[in-house]
Fold each of these.
Amino acid sequence: MAKLFIACDHAAYLEKVELIKFLTKLGHEVQDLGPHSADRVDYPDFAREVCKEVQHEKGLGILLCGSGIGMSIAANRYKNIRAALCRTEKEAELSKQHNNANILCLGARINTQAELESITKAWLLSEFEKGRHSDRVAKFNDLGEVL
């Protein structure tokens, strides 16, 4: 199992704590990169911390905020990061199978705790299918160039 790096903002703090418990029960090694309270924080700061770990291929990342949108936008600014905002198990599966997503973004105000757990589990159990998807995924890093 890959090591998991997780972070959130204040809106998703309680959901993150519960998700860590869930993942630990499944046998995953989880490193909590903050925050460590529900005090107001800026989500880009925590997205950066998870992205640094994932960029160095130390594991996979999970980011939570109120909607998941801010975290996904912030994370996808980093090279070699493929962050997917997933609201359903099917989206989570496809994000890994077709796009080799290395960070899962979740919305604590959108999904219930049970849904967050099932989406995360579906994502972790899915594998990149390679094949026709490999060339497409390889092109992601070229997309940041100004035309």
Note: The mean pLDDT is 95.
Amino acid sequence: MLVIFLTVVLDLVGFGLVIPLLTFYAEEFDATPQQVTALMTVYSLAQFVAAPLWGQASDRYGRRPLLLASIFMTAVMLAGFASATSLWMLFLFRTLHGVMTANIAIAQACMADLTTPETRAKGMGLIGAGFGIGFTLGPWLGGELAQGGHLTRPIWVAAGLSLLNFLLGLWLLPETRKPGSHAERRPINPLALWRAVQHPAVGLCILLTGVFIFAFAAMESTFTLFAEHEHHLKPEQIGRMFGVIGVVGAIVQGGLIHRLVKRFGEAALLPPAFLMVAAGLIVMPFAPLGGALLSTFALIACGQGVVSPALQSLVSRGVPADAQGEVMGSNQSMGALARVFGPLVGGFLFQNVNRGAPFWLAGGLMVAAAGLSVLAGRRAMEHRSAQVA
């Protein structure tokens, strides 16, 4: 489990390094606000297409070779992104980078292979903690390395970390998929996401993943613009802001989620967690710079730290072992689809309606998700009871 955790940490640190400087880097190529958010969108569109294919391929051919290949190619795409000389090259390498980083579905399938249904939330929480650490160190390091206008320096460091991740994986990463599964004879289905959302036990949970990530992406993609225009923050300061989400999220997912799930269950935790995220998003545009603004980030991080592993655990527990790659890939694909539209809608609202509008829309969606999560949890529990019977 720790090997998978380390792989995710290095993967996400490399991803997070780019976040605080992406807007400024794109603006060097005369990108408009909507082109900046579109640059984030193409990354997610590529993940939407690639994630189910990576997941199904790992069910069929094994987790280790595909995870290692995608990590190595991530380093190549980051190097290309840092070497770009025009806006279209930024879009090209950002898109290919998205294809490669759709490999998180494979890491989640590895964790599902290594855990029991009872410890599934703990395992997914460990991956979530890896996300948290990645989003803590990545944006912070990216902001610090970008000081003085050195915007490509963090991207080269991210490429180096991906190469290091590949070398460590060659040495430490085991094959977790059990041989002889039905998936070895099952053809890869490009419409796996559509099949997954119709599943009686996990379909609504996957849809909730999409709603949650849409809201989070709308906030994440426009906050850099909001902070630049409203508070006149620099890349390193924005990186520290996102670091708060990483620190708090890592604490919740790495240390608290297993105890919370053991006591209350995943289904009972989802509604209050969604409402916490809603409160942080709605208040954020009104919060003055300083402790108040940081508090909204902390509130969002606490809710996110529960929502993500709880949904992933419910999704994973709803399908058999030989379909873990497919269902986790479909879940990641839904999240990626949300990241396609979240930044686009957020950027449109920011530019054409009101600078606070993306945050208020996201908060309203979280209130709706809190209500839907009651039904999703009930369906998951009914399916689990039927399996036991």
Note: DSSP finds 15 helices and no strands in the chain.
Amino acid sequence: MNTMHEEVELEKSVRRLREKFHGFIDIDKAVLLMRRYMNDHQMVAKWVALMANADRDLDDEERNTLKNDPVVKNVVMKLKADERQQEEHPTKTSGSSAASSSAKPKAKKKTNEDKHLVELGEHLQALPLTMENKRMFDQAQENQIPAITHQFACQSCDREWWRRVPQRKRVSRCRRCKTKYDPVPPDKMWGIAEFHCPNCTRSFMGFGRMDGRSPCYGCRSAIFPTRILPPKRRAMMPGVRRKNQHSCLAEDCFNRMEPHVPGTECVHPRSRQKNRKPRVVYPSPAHISSGSTVNTCLSQGSLLESINELILDDIEEESDEESDISS
């Protein structure tokens, strides 16, 4: 197996395992378990949630693995560096398919005899019995990482993107400047919007912003959008698509509807370009780390960034630099 791909697969499984347990699992132990069980984070998460026994430290064999296995060493160093940098600079971020199973290390121990699984089960069992912790165990056993899709925007790089992020850690990083951001506030989102007119009951899509009205293509009533649609959601919208030229009440709209609202901005790309305005309408607030979340799941400081991919193949990013609906 290519060393780079091997490290990527190991890092992916370690991040997934740690995210399922909200970062309570130490990096060293998570890496050893993923190396031992061929990156099977689903199986390990289920066993950890069920195990409970006496605490034990690393034995000589495991210390030797941490010290001498180059793939394990690189991933441990990478993940620990991420956490150190996040602790030292809380407001800033640190700047392919797996091969066949024959190329992977073989599991040396049965799960019910593995002291690390037993140890982690005991450690996690000692956590306070809260609804949040109970939910964490239930979701780990079901192999779930609850996620939600958010819009993010970097003002300095003038770019906007959508990211599916864990519900407990709604943070994304700009790929250009590496700054971490919180989502665009719900009432400030913009882009391709879904509208439902209460007057003529017409439903349609068009460029809009949550805090601005646009005219209904049927009765011309000025209405607010219902929601802003992520790129994939737009393609799934049912019904026949009709082309209608964009029009809104914004003062600088290229096809302004009267009476317009003074001081308002149009979000349509044609208006933004015509008025020489940036693409970002409302920037994301910079993320301020509370220290309660760790680099576990998202592509923050990921090995994959050098090849322009994401650390998790099931958490996708879609940028406005890709094709958008416009008319």
Note: Confidence is low (pLDDT under 50) at residues 52-56, 92-112, 296-327.
